[in-house]
Design goal:
The complex is a heterodimer of chains A (265) and B (303).
Chain A (H helix, E strand, L loop, with lengths): L6 H25 L17 H8 L1 H34 L5 H13 L2 H14 L6 H27 L2 H8 L4 H30 L2 H6 L6 H10 L4 H24 L11
Helix pairs in contact in A: 1-11, 2-11, 3-6, 3-8, 3-10, 4-6, 6-8, 7-8, 8-11
Chain B lengths: L1 H51 L2 E3 L2 E3 L5 H8 L3 H33 L3 H16 L2 H12 L4 H8 L14 H25 L3 H9 L4 H29 L3 H5 L8 H10 L4 H29 L4
Antiparallel strand pairs in B: 1-2
Helix pairs in contact in B: 1-12, 2-12, 3-7, 3-9, 4-7, 5-7, 7-9, 9-12, 11-12
The chains are: A mainly alpha (265), B mainly alpha (303).
């Protein structure tokens, strides 16, 4: 028997925590249907006007598309450079490895603003115009650690013996990668890609300083929230939540049974 | 004899060529990521250092080799006090979200038997973590505000006649909002650690006559420390560097360090000062990474 302690009490507490997690989101969703200019009580009646307004707002729709575009680029970058980094950290001893490992992890503990000013200064010096691509490079750098840590952890579990066996049997580097490494890390990589996509889609701190004329969705929401507060924001947020739910559920089911899901004891 | 010597020479040659091959393979995996982080992190940080040693006059950058900005970070108000305040808010957020997260992680790890239900609750924890960060902060504004839901409920219950204003626009609301935002993260981190505890350990303790509290304090709590610490370090860092919550739900006194940096760049055009603050925080971040690695090693228990 794994369970111990006062079960009713534990269940009650856990349900309270879940309620705490969901209440604000439900409140926000509720007010996206409220027939009132202002987010707050009383509830005047049901309307879909705010959703209509969202779908009529080309600036908002454009920024949603921009966010998807940037997040897609970030995922691509983090696979292209994060996967080799994980393999390098797992397999080889190279000069500066300790420093490299720390530098890679740094964006996790660093405020996004700091990553932002460092890159902004760099862009200014090399005369790079701010655009969606500068955001992509910034977020890609900041979020690469997710792919690296996830894939690295999986490679450590895998150990070296399978790779050595493959090499002994005459496999070249590509074959080792294709038939040993890739199948082993596939689910970890998929999970990391999903996480990177969703964080990038929602990222504001790094983006804040690196954004050019075109904005991502969080930046557009930010300016909306700071100027006028309309339930339109609630409607966009509800749509974003629904989209992420679909994305997570699909992703989680796709990688079910792997390390990303709870292990059974 | 000669054939043996020959084969030894050949052997050495194959070993050498194998080493060369291995080196080539290594470079293939090592060079691209190292180059990436050199260009997009090390060089920008080095330039940050160069900038921080200069100064600004009439909105123009003048290079220099002065430590004046670093001295100012530690001596001139409000820099140091805001860094300390941000750290305090980060710490409160980390502690509160661990406290809030623990019961749910505990429930998930020990009291959910069916794997289907476990998967479902796991999903329920992840979904709020992925919901738009800005909107979650904004939702608390609509809950805590003077026209908000909390006040409406309090007034309906007859506990107060007029809206209570102390809920919003202060440090309290910033900490509540940040705690809310980072709790799912703490749940996942603590749960991952609790899930590793073998059932046999609990059964053994029970067979030896330990009660629920004793099992918890003597076995579960010590083992869960690394999960709490790992989650706490990330929660602390994210809350420390936050600049959204202070603007949306904070008051005039809850400005945090990221807001100061933004103001230095956007309003004062004082790049050198912003760079100096950035470098101080980068140093603190590196220390935090080393400390967390050390802590994890010290507290992790292998089964």
């Amino acid at each position: 028997m794994r369970a111990f302690g006062n079960r009713p009490l534990i269940i009650t507490m856990a349900m309270c925590v879940l309620a705490f997690l969901y209440l604000p989101i439900l409140v926000m969703m509720l007010f996206s249907f409220n027939d009132s200019q202002y987010t707050g009580l009383p509830f005047n009646g049901f309307t879909l006007d705010w959703y209509r307004q969202v779908f009529a707002d080309t600036r908002l729709l454009k920024s949603i598309w921009n966010s998807i575009y940037v997040a897609g680029g970030v995922v691509m970058l983090s696979v292209l450079f994060g996967l080799p980094a994980a393999i390098a950290l797992d397999r080889y001893e190279f000069p500066g490895k300790g420093l490299f490992r720390r530098i890679v992890m740094l964006p996790i503990v660093l405020p996004g603003i700091i990553t932002g000013i460092a890159l902004l200064g760099f862009y200014l010096v090399i005369h790079m115009r701010l655009s969606l691509y500068t955001i992509m490079l910034g977020q890609g750098t900041a979020l690469m650690c997710i792919t690296i840590t996830e894939v690295f952890a999986r490679l450590q579990q895998l150990g070296k013996s399978q790779m050595e066996a493959a090499v002994n049997l005459g496999a070249n580097e590509w074959e080792v990668f294709r038939h040993v490494i890739l199948p082993a890390v596939r689910s970890a990589l998929a999970g990391a890609m999903l996480i990177a996509f969703s964080i990038s889609f929602d990222e504001i701190a790094v983006t804040f300083l690196l954004t050019g004329r075109e904005n991502t969705l969080p930046m557009t929401l930010w300016s909306l929230l700071r100027r006028e507060v309309t339930p339109e924001v609630n409607a966009v947020a509800t749509l974003v939540v629904l989209m992420s739910v679909i994305l997570i559920v699909v992703g989680m089911y796709a990688s079910r049974g792997q390390a990303a899901t709870p292990r059974e004891n | 004899m000669s054939s043996i010597a020959l084969s030894a020479g050949e052997n050495a040659k194959t070993i050498r060529s194998a080493r060369r091959l291995d080196r080539r393979r290594m470079l293939f995996w090592v060079v691209p990521p190292v180059a990436w982080f050199t260009v997009f992190m090390l060089i920008p940080y080095a330039m940050l250092l160069y900038t921080s040693l200069g100064r600004v006059e009439d909105m123009r950058f003048i290079p220099g080799l002065s430590l004046r900005n670093f001295i100012q970070v530690f001596t001139v108000d409000p820099y140091l006090s805001v860094i300390i305040k941000s750290a305090r808010i980060g710490l409160m957020t980390a502690v509160l979200s661990a406290i809030v997260a623990y019961p749910l992680s505990f429930f998930l790890a020990f009291h959910v038997r069916s794997s289907r239900l476990k998967f479902l609750i796991y999903l329920l924890v992840i979904v709020p973590w992925w919901a738009s960060y800005l909107v979650k902060a904004y939702a608390w504004k609509t809950i805590l505000g003077s026209g908000g839901i909390l006040n409406a409920l309090l007034q309906k219950a007859g506990l107060t006649d007029e809206p209570v204003r102390i809920f919003l626009y202060n440090e309290f609301s910033v900490v509540v909002t940040l705690t809310y935002i980072f709790t799912p993260f703490a749940v996942l981190s603590i749960y991952a650690q609790l899930e590793r505890i073998p059932t046999s350990l609990i059964e053994a303790a029970r067979n030896l006559g330990a009660g629920g509290w004793m099992i918890f304090w003597r076995i579960i709590a010590p083992i869960s420390v690394p999960g709490v610490v790992a989650g706490g370090i990330i929660t602390f860092s994210l809350a420390f560097g936050d600049f959204v919550a202070p603007v949306l739900v904070g008051g005039p006194d809850s400005v945090m360090i990221s807001n100061i940096v933004i103001n230095l760049l956007g309003v004062a055009f004082d790049w050198p000062m912003a760079a100096a603050i950035g470098l101080v925080i980068i140093t603190l971040g590196l220390l935090l990474i080393s400390a967390s690695g050390w802590l994890e090693e010290k507290t992790q228990i292998r089964f």
